[in-house]
Amino acid sequence: MVKKTFIVLLLSTLTQSKELTPLLQQNCLKCHVKQKIPSELVYRRYLLKFSTKKRMKESLLSYLKNPKKENSIMPQQFFLKFPEKEALDLNDTVLEESIKAYLDYFDVKDRLELEK
Amino acid sequence: MLSSERRSLVRFLAIYLGSTLILFSLGSYMFYNFQKHQIIDTQNAQLELEAQKLTQKLRELHETYKKPLLYPNDPAFDSAIYDVDRGYIFGTFKPTSIEWSRDFYKRGDKLYCLHALKPYYLGASYLLISKDFNPKPLNELLKMLLLFLVAAGVLFTILGLFLGRRFIAPMKESIELMNRFIEDTTHELNTPISTILTNIELLDTLYNCEGQKEMRRIEMASKTLSRLYEDLTFLKLNHNYHRALERLNLSELLEERIEFFQTLIEAKDIKIIKNIDPNITLEMDRNDAIRLLDNLLSNAIKYNHKSGKLEVALRANMLEVKNDGQGIKKEDLALIQNRFRRANSSEGGFGIGLDIIGQVVKRYNFTFTIHSDINQPTKVTLTW
User: Fold this and answer.
1) Can you tell me the distance from the alpha carbon of B210 to that of B55, in angstroms, rounded to the nearest whole number?
2) Which residues in chain B have Cβ-Cβ distances shorter than 8 Å to A54?
3) Residue A92: which H helix or E strand, with range?
4) pLDDT higher than 50, residue B325
5) Where are the domains of chain B?
6) Collapsing DSSP states into helix, strand and coil, what is residue B86?
7) Strand intervals (E) in chain A
8) From CA B10, how far away is CA B3, in angstroms rounded?
């Protein structure tokens, strides 16, 4: 029951934002949803540390090519709850496009609105 | 008040008030700048406070991250957030250029505060806040300073006048003493001079007196004394006596005055060249005209070489007197018109001649020029 609720919540959060691309769905969210990894929290952490899309992308790419705890910016507790990631079997172009889709999907600029 | 006293007082006041004004202006400028920075700092503190509030809001938004992220919009302030590469993220305004190196700055009538953020809530590394600069305190400060300067100006002018009068008091006393001495002397001189001149004329007319040469010398000396008496009386009474303006025949008067000086001219064997147009008239007081002509001619004779040349020319709007003298140094030309100032001490006198000429010229708005140099002829030109 908890698992279902989590998935529904996660998907509902995702669908509130930009369109979910097949690339993003296939290469990222499929496993994130399955393993209950909070994608938005990860995005926020990267945003808090790197500020720009370019810097976030560089960091994510570097981590995804070599997904070890010491290459991640997530706290140690994060890896206690979620399993250490396996390296993706994707070429650089697809990997970069997937990261771009991920960053675009959670992009802060799209979420900001002026208070009335 | 004599013109020299007035001149000294004006000079003193100019120096005193000038230096006071410079000092006060400098002090006021420094005070204004100090206060201006204080006023701006006070208004900057409001920006800083708003920056802290906004930072807190950004943190809350970052933590919730629920769409829509409602960016705070206070009408009193404009704000915008920028990423670490200075790229614009969002805001209520978007300025064209930003001074990234300064935390606070003023551009036009707006104040800006650039607040650095770490960590980067919503990706924001810089928070720029702006508000309209409130010029009211600055205008009030300016008004107060102007009022202060005016009040200080009035106070120091009064003080300056008081000090100035005390400053010129010794000079005034000296001049008054000299004037009193001249007045007394001239009064005592009048009767004997008149007696001498009358008796010379009587001797000349009634008796075929021997010793004509000696008689001429006595006449010459008496006329010099008489003229000196007239000059001194003119200076003493210049400000008080009533002038009777009349249409004078200047040609006739000039001939008459040359005749008056004939004895002196002959004594120095001066060759006189007259170019006097007939019936040149001028609206003037007769005594002023006599003093003017006498002093011009007297100087031209007195400072001429023995057997020198004296040229007198009178035209419709000009009188020119030229003599062969020792000339006057260029640097002395401007000074010799002051009372008691003489460029040449070779001849006797009080040095009041050119001062009298200067006073008459000023009264009638004539133009007076002297062209001379050392060992060159001196040419005095009077135009009207």
Assistant:
1) 123
2) 85
3) helix A92-105
4) yes
5) 3-134, 243-383
6) coil
7) 112-114
8) 10
- Asked if the Cβ–Cβ distance from B65 to A17 is below 8 Å, we say no
Beta-carbon separation of A17 and B67 below 8 A = yes
**B107: its two tokens:** 């551009």
What ipTM did this prediction achieve? Answer: 0.83
Residues on chain A touching B90 (C-beta within 8 angstroms): 109, 112
DSSP-derived 3-state class of residue A43: helix
Question: Distance (Å) from the C-alpha of residue B132 to the closest C-alpha of chain A?
Answer: 21
Q: pLDDT band at A3, cuts 50/70/90?
A: very low
Radius of gyration of chain B (CA): 41
Mutation pick from B53, B61, B62, B83 vs chain A, by most beta carbons of A within 10 Å, is: B83
Give the CATH fold of the B243-383 domain.
Answer: Heat Shock Protein 90 (3.30.565)
Report which DSSP code applies to A27.
Answer: I
Chain A residues near residue B92 by CB distance under 8 angstroms:
114
Q: Do A47 and B87 touch (CB under 8 A)?
A: no
Q: Is the pLDDT of residue B155 over 90?
A: yes
Nearest-5° Cα angle at B328, B326 to B333: 165
B85–A51 C-beta distance less than 8 A: yes
- The pLDDT tens digits of the residues spanning B226-283 come to 877 777 777 766 656 677 888 999 999 999 889 888 888 888 889 999 999 999 999 9
